[in-house]
Amino acid sequence: MSTALDVWLYGTRAGTLTSRDGRLDLAWSDDAVARWGAGSRVASHLLPLATAEGSHPARVGAWLEGLLPEGRTRTAMAVDHGIDPDDTLGILGVYGKDTAGALVLVDEGAPDPATTAHLEPVDRAQVAAMLRQSASSGTADTRLDSLTSLAGMEPKVALAWHDGGWARVRAGAASTHIIKLSRSAQSPTRDLIDTEAASLDLARRIGLTSVDARIEQFDEVRAIVVSRYDRVVSDGPTERIHQEDLAQALGINTSDPERKFQRGRSLPSYVAAARVLTDGGARTDELLRLVTFTVAIGNTDAHAKNHSFVRHPDGARLNLAPAYDISMHEHTSVSSGRLAMEVSGKDAIASITAEDLADEGRSWGMAPRRAQRVVAQTVQAIADALSVVDRDGHPGVSAAAWETVERRVRALGP
Predict the structure, then answer these.
(1) Distance CA 395, CA 133 (A)
(2) Which positions fall inside the HipA-like C-terminal domain (predicted)?
(3) H/E run at residue 195
């Protein structure tokens, strides 16, 4: 198993990771310091370049854990390759060549991954087999996916769309889409991918996301195909855009999946997310729009792993990532009715008012009238989008789901 990995970021070998007795050490490279400067947060809010904080083993470990999936998915991925599920570096040695964001992790001393990257075309039957296998466990010899590391618990695979077909990514190539398996027809949340596609449709209509999503059938396997906002597809090789999620930015170790929810704790929180934005010189308006949208559609799974920040190649710019992994939950029979992160000290979604949303924005330092205006304009934009969205284009979304969103939007309106 890997005991040392080189970290590549935006075409620069940024550092080297080593593991000893469970401790993860990160040594930033001279090339990284020369390109971005000591203290740059190009990699992470948590890990300023070439500083004691940016190399602290606990911080490095928490951040890297955030690149890995959770629960049974992580265990299966590790076991498939004979790796201890607790061996973070070992898992990333196999799966770290395509992660969330722009980091590429390769064996120490390996060449620039851009020089080795390649694609392996697959047909739709093979995609169906990958999706089936994503919900179970294969073996190292038969594993079919792209060996991509993506956070979360839902069965999924990452592939590249290339020349009108799908391809596995290999040796440092970048995937362009995430394909998630539908839940079983017997599940009380069987419409999850349908409401995700519909929610992303609404979010696109009001300018909250650039992500495209559609429901597709691969043989008998039903799935959602979602474009990656951290990839730029062009005629040449796909470019990576670096990002980190809120849990990573705050140093929250999500090897315990419950830690991504606030649940009465001080972290994670929206005020902390706003602080990451303002520390990076960005405004918080888009975050308040996203929080308002979250409440309006009944998305009770908007936890710290489902909020991210885009970090640009210059190492200076930062902005809130486009909305992703958003769904309607409130209409289901198993909904807890609790938000993943509190709004103005409340997590019962039914109790959240427009004033609460504006109060949340004010707690970040937004001017009161500005916060009220952002909330009101967002609610109106959602209402307008609901009036024109093609519901026939989302046949898997029930009338009850749409009605729940409409009721919530009316409650938040003037």
Answers:
(1) 27
(2) 148-385
(3) helix 192-205
Q: Token pair 């090339």 is at which residue?
A: 31
Q: Which amino acid is at 5?
A: L
**What is d(CA 94, CA 299) in angstroms, rounded to the nearest whole number?**
33
Strands of 156-265 (E only): list them. Answer: 156-162, 165-170, 177-181, 213-218, 221-227, 231-232, 239-240, 242-245
Question: Measured between alpha carbons, how far is residue 301 from residues 261, 305, 329, 345, 395 in Å?
Answer: 9, 10, 8, 17, 22
Q: Are 188 and 333 in contact (CB under 8 A)?
A: yes
Residue 186 CB coordination number (10 Å): 6
pTM of full prediction above 0.85? yes
| Weakly modelled stretches of the chain, pLDDT under 70 | 1-2, 137-145
CATH fold for domain 241-412: 1.10.1070
Phi, psi of 141 (to 5 degrees): -80, -25
Residue tagged 């948590």 (tokens): 46
Give, rounded to a whole angstrom, the gap between the first and last alpha carbons of the chain.
59
Which are the contacts of 385, defined by CB distance < 8 A and separation ≥ 6? 202, 205, 206
Q: What is the pLDDT of residues 106-147, one digit of tens each?
A: 999 999 999 999 999 999 999 999 998 887 754 444 456 678
